[in-house]
Amino acid sequence: MEISCEAMPKPIVTFVCENCGTQRPKWEGQCSSCKEWNTLVENSDSIATTGVRAWVSSQTSTLKSLSEVTFDDAPRLKMSLSEVNRVLGGGLVAGSVILIAGEPGVGKSTLLLQIADNIAREFGGALYVTGEESLTQVKVRAGRLGIAGERIQILQGAHLSDVITNLDNAQPSLAIIDSIQTMHTDDVSSGMGSISQIRECTQVLIQWAKVNEVPIIISGHVTKDGDIAGPRVLEHMVDVVLQLEGEGVSTWRQLRAVKNRFGSTNETGIFEMTDQGLLQVEDPSGMFLAERMHGAIGSAIVPIVEGTRSMIVEIQALTNRTSLPIPRRLATGVDNNRVLLVCAVLTRQLGLSLSDQDVIVNVTGGIKVSEPAVDLGVALAIASSFKNSPVAGDLAVVGEIGLSGEVRRVPNIERRFSEVQRLGLKGCLAPAKSIKHDEAYAVGVPVSTLREALTKVLP
Ligand code: TYD
Ligand code: MG
């Protein structure tokens, strides 16, 4: 690709919201679009179409009838990292751009190097652009991971036109940009890491990926609130957004799809951070249950469904007399609002006096569960701790709880039961309405209300 360097016209100064990407002619303290405070920053872009930008605008598209489009148009590169394949919906789609977001130190660069190694060995070369670390630092990491890297080409630098030229020459099977916040282009006059730089660089990379049918994975930092640093707009531009998450000092890592144009967003991949990098955990249920104490108080096991996978997680709860005027409710791994709801139902419908108790709920292994099907597990774990008695019979439990204390139906009950059976658990309390008269539902123990569930397992 030729990049011409014509003189840049006078920049036009506008202000852009770092949260939602809205442009304003004047600075405002609060963004009038998304209502966030102090998010407007100066954006002195030239509106010129020079350099890399000109190349982007010169790309033309041809008209095709939808019926002519075949699935071969989007071939997938399947890696031996099956957990990553799963989250992507079956492998890397050629020409797609994937953003991996996560807090610093969570393991993005580690995962990216492992992916690069996988693709390089199975499909030819990979090009790894490191904008943050030196070549030696990457080499040290590769050493820890046992990656020799003959077919991984590595480029240190952050200049977009450099990256594009090298991509054009190398024509790799996969390109990795670590990280997008370090890339910059001369087409935009604002500083490195600014919203306009990030947006511009991403746009050019997307265009290159589509034209050359090569997938590009870019990494991005998240802010302390968990948002992708800088622009939300980045999320709208790329095809796939993956989040790599881990709780505090835990070695478990969860890779989840937040957006996926080529598959479901319910999928999660589970990894463990070890001395040799991220190891896939193919049987998380087995791992989580192995650490569980038999007959533990304040513990409930719940079969959850995440995309195509079902797994068993342990919910732990601890109730403790509070020393504060207002008792605390602390939830890790489950939605705080669900815990508030469950506490309210336990107090009002079942007379458990939680009003002077701090309640702490935790999903072990740092796993985050978003489905309401864990409600019953949360309720029984809290009740078990409060009554100081374990959930009887080592039963698994699943069900959503309504405000009147009813146990409501949950989806995919057959898959949950088969996981319960696979792990050799005796049975599973489940919403009566979800259980059918069928062999596959044999482990199910029907309950219609929370009161009924409590009498069954916490008499
Ligand atoms: P890194 O991939 O550099 O994180 P990010 O790119 O998201 O900032 O991972 C950094 C952490 O991972 C670091 O604290 C050390 C740890 N780590 C291991 O525990 N084992 C390993 O094999 C590697 C490479 C890193
Ligand atoms: Mg990194």
Task: Describe the model.
It is a single chain. This protein is of the alpha/beta class. It is globular, with a radius of gyration of 26 Å. It has helices at residues 51-57, 82-88, 108-123, 135-145, 160-170, 195-212, 233-237, 284-290, 336-350, 375-387, 413-422, 450-457; strands spanning 14-17, 23-24, 40-43, 76-77, 92-93, 97-102, 126-130, 152-156, 174-178, 216-221, 240-245, 252-260, 268-274, 277-280, 299-306, 309-321, 329-332, 357-363, 396-397, 400-401, 407-408, 428-431, 444-447. It is 28% helix and 25% strand. It has 3 domains: 7-49; 76-281, P-loop containing nucleotide triphosphate hydrolases (Rossmann fold, 3-Layer(aba) Sandwich), CATH 3.40.50.300; 286-457, Ribosomal Protein S5, domain 2. The protein contains 12 helices and 23 strands. The chain binds thymidine-5'-diphosphate (TYD) and magnesium ion. Magnesium ion is lined by residues 108-109, 132, 178.
